[in-house]
Amino acid sequence: MRMVERLRSQGIADEKVLAVMSALPRHVFVEEAFASRAYDDDALPINFGQTISSPWTVGRMSELLRANSDLDKVLEIGTGCGYQTAVLAQLAREVYSLERVGLLLTRTRIRLKELQVNNVYLKHTDGMHGLAEAGPFDGIIMTAATVHVPPFLLEQLVVGGRMVYPKGSVEQRLCVIERHPQSYNETILETVNFVPILSGVVRK
Ligand code: SAH
To answer: What values do phi and psi take at 151, rounded to 5?
Structure first.
């Protein structure tokens, strides 16, 4: 509850996002050694050099993706420990989440099953290609930073849909791209700090 109060004071305004985050146990998603810090506003290590995004980041990206309406199909690139995935699962009818590190995904699959998150489809693949066969999506969220989003990924959005991602490499800003009938509109927002998107898959 204190975490959610802090998020509210930090400007997260979407009550549905706040309600979902107040009900989801975040300590289940971090390594045991960090469990006592799970509700601090920090990114924490989740192995393989990756990090679980901070609560503020998850709240902010979720409210930007939702834009105050329920989502139908969402694509997430960078499953990691699955915390953002589990939040999205309660904001959307179906979530497709792609992760390049096989072992991370194996653990996350077990964790989400234990939490009875059943409307999430996880795939071990290089997420930069998206998942055209399951699209189009009304939201795409990327939880690793990139300078450039390939056009074929944006084409997996419905018209009226939006993509939220950290744009940049050393200096990064949250970026929202909205798909309009004939064009895309980009909005640059807060400074953030994500690991970079990497190409290819890691088997283990
Ligand atoms: N939302 C996650 C963020 C994890 S960090 C969480 O809170 O746990 C970013 C994740 O993106 C890492 O798990 C990393 O392995 C993954 N990633 C990086 N490049 C990727 C790519 N090309 N395709 C799929 N996943 C990728």
So the answer is: -55, -35
Residues with CB under 6 A from ligand 1: 46, 50-53, 77-78, 80-81, 83-84, 98-101, 104, 126-128, 143-144, 195, 197-199
Q: Residues in the chain, how many?
A: 204
What's the CA-to-centroid distance between 99 and ligand 1, angstroms? Answer: 6
The protein residue with its alpha carbon nearest to ligand 1, atom 11, reads 78
Let me know if 114 is exposed, middle or buried by CB neighbors in 10 A (0-12, 13-18, 19+). Answer: exposed
Q: pLDDT tens across 172-198, in order?
A: 999 999 999 999 999 999 999 999 999
- Peptide linkage before 136 cis (omega within 30 of 0): yes
- The CATH class of the 2-192 domain is alpha beta
Distance, CA of 60 to chain centre: 10
50 CA distance to ligand 1 centroid (A)?
Answer: 7
pLDDT tens digit string along 110-133?
999 999 999 999 999 999 999 999
pTM: 0.97
User: CA quadruple 198, 136, 110, 41: dihedral positive or negative?
Assistant: positive
